Amino acid sequence: MRKGIYILPNLFTAGSLFAGFYCMVSTLNGDYRTAALWILASSIFDGLDGKVARLTKTASKFGVEFDSLADVVSFGAAPGLLMYAWALKPFGRVGWLAGFLFLVCAALRLARFNVQVDTVESKRFVGLPTPAAASMASATVLLFYHMGWPASYAKPAVLALIYFLALLMVSNVRYYSFKDPSLIKRQPFAFLVFAVFLLIVIAAEPVLMLFTIFIGYIFSGPIGFILTWPRRRRLEKAMRKGHEELGRKNSQG
């Protein structure tokens, strides 16, 4: 701290924190659609701060800690309060407990990420990332407004969604991190065509497409976990057998 801090990446983190705080302000004012949009803005700032830090080689321990604290507000407290005020309040204790569970699971997810950042594969996240969980909640609110559905529509489904997202954040389900260096290297021409087509579809129906993309990402983890279960079981059995054989050899020696 005596040597100073890097301004640029931390400004993006502060922007993410501001967006999360303003989401809570909009929620308290009853403007839930605006609150949901500010969560999406916060996720954009959160994605940029790390990339800016890496590109400018200004990553620091202070920036990592500041980013985690900002994420607790923007992707834990803000969406938890939004979903409670928008749809979960009629459930009473079960409703506000869902909002609190979302917050505490987000904090636990961030704490686990900080202690595992040097020991896990960079291409995969362990547990649902907090920005994705918060963005899924905001996309749900925007979908209701886009469709003209009242907040009372399908409230049990919204409650189940919040519990589901909270549990995914602290699970061992792995999610693609989009940090693969090969993504920025040369790609086939068809990849560019697909990307342009995807942008056109998103521009045509942004709310529907954002909801579809987020829910697809949410379920990609559990689906991948189920599909790779037999292979993981075989690997665990092979490792257990190898450890047993090694133990027998050591005991005989």
UniProtKB/TrEMBL annotation:
Some GO term, biological process aspect, for this entry: which one?
phospholipid biosynthetic process
Q: Which reaction does it catalyse?
A: a CDP-1,2-diacyl-sn-glycerol + L-serine = a 1,2-diacyl-sn-glycero-3-phospho-L-serine + CMP + H(+)
The record ties this protein, via PROSITE patterns, to: CDP_ALCOHOL_P_TRANSF (PS00379)
Q: Does the keyword Lipid biosynthesis apply?
A: yes
Chain ranges passing through the membrane: 7-29, 94-113, 125-145, 157-176, 188-204, 210-230
Membrane topology (UniProt): Multi-pass membrane protein
Q: Where in the cell is it found?
A: Endomembrane system
Q: What EC number(s) does the entry state?
A: 2.7.8.8
NCBIfam families in alphabetical order: pssA
UniProt family annotation: Belongs to the CDP-alcohol phosphatidyltransferase class-I family.
Name used for this protein in its record:
CDP-diacylglycerol--serine O-phosphatidyltransferase
**From which source organism is this entry?**
Geomesophilobacter sediminis
